[in-house]
């Protein structure tokens, strides 16, 4: 209660009145922390402000659309504060000043008088919040660009462009750029502001439609929305080039209502896609609900809420950026899983469940590098089934596939996890293993040959023996490439075939 009393007492005698000198409207009271509803017309506007303030304060108003502004007091032009929106320090005591605004369009400046400590506290809070928002935008842009490049997915590039456009639009609307530049470049900055509006609508439309995959279900509507977004972009550019009040009014209405229509339609499409089960559609629907509400206040209820008029977009886009980041992250995760699964499937033989030629070559390359680094020896075992064609011809291809799978399973269970076991194709298999000494090689080869030549398969209650020739070669020095290894193994295998006594297939009594 004491704090409230002190606050009330400090402002009890403070009064401020403001009058638009270009109209006959009487002066209105300017209350502490409450924006004025006085409007500004396109062109030159003059306001007289008369105040009696005990401790001074700060008068601030919105900057977008202004060509220039001055505060003249006692025949002296006062220098504004370095701030996003226009702000002037008010002298303590009684004074009268004239504020001159040269505006590009009709708008409401929202003159607001605040105690100096309150203004700077809120300015710091606003800078912190906006800095966090810009940091989020930059982080999302780089993250999605990197992931989009790795996954080669265009929707991520569209999202990066969209976030960049949003960040630029908010930066120019809130005026933080004026912390680093002078008022003399305001015309250039305003044109960039107009351009950012068109680019934001354009990039948002392209990105949302791509994320929702609307082209598959509504190709004509998708094309219409993209065309409408291009029209908004066109009018934004024309407003930069044409300085005519009537055209500006028409262009402003076209841009505003077209943007609102695009958001409303995509919002509806997101709801339909969410009901259909399209991934990420629910998040897009929720994100667009915030944007749609802010657009309604921006276009249809323009004078209903000063807070929504200024901060609605910022809050909506901040929430939307977060939700869309979650949606994009989900898609990235899903695509990475799918990519990893595809790579895994591409490296494996689907029939036998071991590495195919491609996968075996990749793992063998790793073993070659390990051999070059750690030393030891590499041993290649090249396996070719004997009389495999007779199994297919006499018992059918299903039985032949059974024989291949039996051999693959035996090889996989006979070697270590870090050895490379693969099927080159047909009835040819390979094993590449690393050993630290040559003494370890011969027992492994003998073990593998013995197990392979004890294999049998069943066919209609008959047991068929499966025989294989195993050629082996040992590399003390790292081989130059995979082809060198395979060529040496193939030669050793055929030498083994010629040397051993090839027996015909026999039926083994069960």
Describe this structure in words.
This protein is an alpha+beta fold and 510 residues long. It has helices at 2-12, 116-151, 154-174, 186-212, 214-217, 219-241, 245-276, 281-299, 306-347, 357-374, 388-395, 397-414, 441-452, 482-499; strands at residues 15-20, 28-29, 43-53, 57-61, 66-73, 76-77, 86-90, 93-103, 112-114, 377-385, 420-425, 428-435, 456-459, 462-465, 468-475, 507-508. The strands form 4 sheets. Strands 2-1-3-8-5-6 form a 6-stranded antiparallel beta sheet. Strands 11-12-10-15 form a 4-stranded antiparallel beta sheet, sandwiched between helices. Helix 4 (186-212) packs parallel to helix 7 (245-276), helix 6 packs antiparallel against helix 7 and helix 12 runs antiparallel to helix 13. It is elongated. The N and C termini lie far apart (101 Å).
Structure at a glance:
By secondary structure, the protein is an alpha+beta fold.
Q: Please summarize the sheet with the most strands.
A: 6 strands, antiparallel
The residue-averaged pLDDT reads 83
State the end-to-end CA separation: 101 Å
Low-pLDDT stretches are: 1-12, 502-510
> Helical segment tally?
14
Binned, the helix content reads 55-70%
Specify the structural class. alpha+beta
E-strand count: 16
Choose one word for the global shape: elongated
Indicate the radius of gyration in whole angstroms.
38 Å
Strand content: 15-25%
Secondary-structure element series: HEEEEEEEEEHHHHHHHHHEHHEEHEEEHE
How would you write the strand order of the largest sheet? 2-1-3-8-5-6
């Amino acid at each position: 209660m004491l704090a409230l009393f002190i606050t009330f007492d400090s402002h009890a005698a403070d009064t401020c009145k403001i009058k638009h000198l270009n109209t006959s409207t009487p002066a209105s009271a300017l209350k502490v922390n409450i924006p004025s509803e006085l409007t500004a017309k396109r062109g030159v506007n003059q306001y007289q402000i008369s105040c009696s303030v005990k401790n001074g304060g700060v008068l601030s108003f919105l900057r977008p659309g202004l060509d220039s502004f001055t505060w003249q007091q006692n025949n002296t032009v006062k220098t504004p504060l370095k701030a996003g929106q226009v702000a002037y320090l008010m002298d303590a005591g009684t004074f009268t000043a004239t504020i001159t605004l040269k505006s590009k369009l009709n708008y409401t400046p929202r003159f607001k008088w605040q105690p100096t400590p309150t203004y700077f506290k809120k300015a710091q809070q606003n800078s912190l919040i906006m800095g966090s928002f810009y940091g989020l935008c930059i982080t999302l842009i780089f993250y999605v660009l990197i992931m989009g490049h790795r996954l080669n997915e265009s929707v991520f590039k569209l999202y990066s462009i969209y976030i960049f456009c949003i960040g630029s639009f908010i930066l120019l609307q809130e005026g933080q750029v004026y912390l680093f530049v002078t008022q003399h470049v305001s015309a250039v900055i305003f044109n960039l502001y107009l351009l950012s509006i068109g680019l934001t609508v354009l990039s948002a439309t392209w990105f949302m439609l791509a994320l929702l995959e609307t082209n598959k279900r509504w190709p004509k509507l998708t094309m219409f929305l993209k065309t409408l977004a291009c029209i908004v972009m066109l009018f934004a550019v024309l407003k930069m080039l044409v300085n005519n009040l009537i055209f500006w009014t028409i262009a402003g209405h076209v841009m505003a209502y077209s943007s609102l229509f695009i958001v409303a339609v995509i919002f509806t499409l997101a709801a339909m896609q969410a009901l259909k089960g399209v991934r990420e559609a629910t998040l897009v629907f929720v994100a667009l609900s915030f944007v749609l509400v802010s657009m309604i206040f921006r276009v249809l209820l323009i004078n209903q809420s000063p807070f929504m008029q200024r901060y609605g977009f910022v809050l909506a886009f901040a929430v939307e950026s977060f939700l869309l980041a979650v949606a994009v992250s989900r898609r990235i995760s899903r695509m990475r899983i799918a990519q990893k699964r595809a790579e895994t499937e591409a490296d494996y033989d689907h029939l036998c469940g071991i590495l195919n030629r491609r996968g075996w070559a990749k793992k063998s390359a790793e073993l070659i590098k390990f051999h070059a680094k750690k030393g030891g020896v590499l041993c290649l075992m090249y396996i070719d089934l004997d009389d495999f064609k007779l199994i297919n011809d006499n018992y059918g291809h299903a039985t032949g596939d059974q024989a291949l799978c039996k051999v693959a399973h035996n090889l996989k269970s006979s070697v270590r996890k870090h050895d490379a076991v693969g099927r080159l194709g047909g009835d040819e298999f390979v094993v590449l293993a690393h050993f630290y000494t040559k003494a370890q090689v011969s027992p492994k080869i003998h073990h593998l040959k013995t197990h392979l030549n004890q294999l049998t398969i069943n066919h209609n209650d008959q047991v068929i023996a499966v025989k294989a020739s195993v050629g082996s070669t040992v590399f003390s020095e790292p081989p130059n490439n995979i082809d060198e290894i395979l060529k040496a193994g193939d030669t050793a295998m055929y030498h083994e075939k010629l040397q051993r006594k090839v027996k015909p297939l026999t039926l083994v009594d069960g």
